[in-house]
Amino acid sequence: MQTKVVGILERRDDRFMADVASRLADIPVEYISFADERVPLERPYRVVVDRLSFCYPFLREMVKNLALGGAYVINNPFAAAATNKLVDMRLGSCLGLAFPKTIVLPDQTAIEQMSSVVAQPDLDRVDEELGFPCVLKPFDGYAWQDVYMVSSVQELRNLYLALCSRYVLMAQQLITFKDYFRVFCFDKKDVLFVRWVPKPLAMGQYLYCDLGGMGGVLERLIDLTTRFNQALDLDVNVMEWCVDEKGQWWVIDAFNEVPDITPEALPREYYTWIVERFAACVRDKLDPSKKNRTPFAEPSLIPGGATP
Q1: Looking at the structure, do residues 18 and 46 belong to the same domain, yes or no?
Q2: How much is the pTM?
Q3: What is the three-state SS of the chain?
Q4: Which end of the chain is more exposed for a tag (fewer CB within 10 A), N or C?
């Protein structure tokens, strides 16, 4: 069995992954497909680049199985499956990241089936603690799906009743920002700040920015970004940082394991850097001593498998 094969789990027409693969021309690279699979999976991959399983449970379980077999999966499927906005805020706050004030609102199923444990939310509390306007969104949402700006208790109540059958929701303090950045982090150490104009429906805009005047603030933000990604064990992640008029830096979104990356959207210099750093991360993980962390207490019981 080959020991240095890279498997790509992505649609074949994805331009970004094709550009990454072109930087790996000296390494056997193939696109992965699954059909009727026997467990444990026996595949020749040393590294698996996973850009699809975040929205397909079947694929998530397949890449977990590959990781337990010794493949290094980018990103760690155990870490990526465990994180959400609430986990991010708890962990990030311990590391020194600042998040907007947040109130969690339970889903309808929990209220109906566990009424002795989960109470109806007091939506007036949102006004008292966060004020209006505020932001309402799912605790595990992605790509602006069901994200709303809320202007009153009545509007919050209407939206909550419409959404709570499908989601655990978060009401969050609205931060009026002066500047906003998407921050790419690769291999838990390589960081790129890109000015970003946030808009829904993939209409956000990347802009070139000169960070020379940020000085020590930039160094601190880079340190916080890398430490956060090290803690989550994410080799690829995009965080969203913004700064308000008072100079306070906030994390608006700490987790995006599969960022949309297209050459048309980014300044060319940034796109080239991202492609090269992604390819360098893949090369680094060809080292057979590198394994994904797993949640298991005794990984030594898995001969040849993943280690923490």
Answers
A1: yes
A2: 0.91
A3: CCCCEEEEECCCCCHHHHHHHHCCCCCCEEECCCCCCCCCCCCCEEEEEECCHHHCHHHHHHHHHHHHCCCEEECCHHHHHHCCHHHHHHHHHHHCCCCCCEEEECCHHHHHHCCCCCCCCCCHHHHHHCCCCEEEEECCCCCCCCCEEECCHHHHHHHHHHHCCCCCEEEEECCCEEEEEEEEEECCCEEEEEEEECCCCCCCEEECCCCHHHCHHHHHHHHHHHHHHHHHCCCEEEEEEEEECCCCEEEEECCCCCCCCCCCCCCHHHHHHHHHHHHHHHHHCCCCCCCCCCCCCCHHHCCCCCCC
A4: N
- Domain contains 186: yes
In a domain, residue 287? The reply is no
Least confident of 21-35, 174-188, 191-205, 237-251: 191-205
Provide the domain limits for residue 226: 176-267
User: From the CA atom positions of the chain, what is the Rg in Å?
Assistant: 21
Same domain? For 203 and 122 the reply is no
Tokens of 265: 């959207």
Evaluate if residue 255 carries a pLDDT over 50. yes
Selected residue with higher pLDDT from 204 and 237:
237
pLDDT tens digits for range 6-24: 999 999 999 999 999 999 9
What pLDDT is recorded for position 300? 53
**Is residue 77 assigned to a domain?**
yes
